[in-house]
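Researcher: We are triaging several targets before committing to wet-lab work. For this one, the compound of interest is zinc ion. I'm pasting the protein sequence and the ligand SMILES. What I need is the predicted three-dimensional arrangement of the protein with the ligand bound, expressed as structure tokens, so it can go straight into our comparison scripts without reformatting.
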Amino acid sequence: MLVKLEKKAFGLLLYISVNTVMLLTGCSNSPQTKRHSAGGDTPGVEKGAADTVPKAVMPKKDSSHQFAWDSTSYDTSKCYIYLTFDDGPQNGTMNCYHIVKDLGIKATFFMVGMHADDRALRNIVDSIRDGYPEILLANHSFTHANNKYHYFYDHPEMAMEDFLKAQESLQVPFKIIRLPGNSAWVREGEVRASKLVKPVTLLLDSLQYNVIGWDVEWNFNHKTARPVQSVTSMLKLVEEAMNRGESHTKKHVVILSHDRMFRHPEDADSLYNFINTLKQNPRYVFETITSYPKLKTPGSN
Ligand SMILES: [Zn+2]
């Protein structure tokens, strides 16, 4: 049985760079390596780098792309998987991109504005944006709170401006945010957040933003940035989340991972195997976050 959820379509015209193919082939040795050492939640967030605001990507006028909230139909016999990659653009982003493309599935990249601080990195953001609708670019703030989460969330107006700056500089097509360092949810009729992040989530809610948390995390070693759990463990975690109905929304599981975890070929292989095994299960359907239930769409309020 299909449950129809009507989402109002809208048109947001963005332009696709005509040299996407060039960008994709040039990404594997992009210079972002230097910006992402292995430690911390956001290696590569350099102090003071917020001053180096990425120049807006100049649109090419000979092609265009339509971003729209499609009507989403949920098959109640299926389970929906939302793969999400955080903190790009960084070394590892394009490995994830190519794996997602090669396997023909869907995934969402929550990106950090200040990480896109040179042309090669901005090209990666373009590739992700242009991957729509199979690949979705979403907002993970401009500064990633400079990894000082308490200060960031204790200043909600400043934090909100930081998200708006990322929305603009990365040209994020939809109002979809993931908070740095915190799992919170803002959807139609829902604000679920810890005391620390509640003030900024309320501000974002008032601006019609959605905030997306996660259900299952593929953790990484903060010294090496390499994945902690094996593919087998991750498959079990996803299956348990589905079967126990413990995800934020039943039958919809959001998986959090980070682009940089998959920069080494053997770890990229793990990601490939993880997705490919999930894909063999006929119950599972991969979607981008725009298909998550009860998101606020333009015109829904
Ligand atoms: Zn992050």
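Researcher: Any quick observations?
Model: Confidence is low (pLDDT under 50) at residues 1-64.
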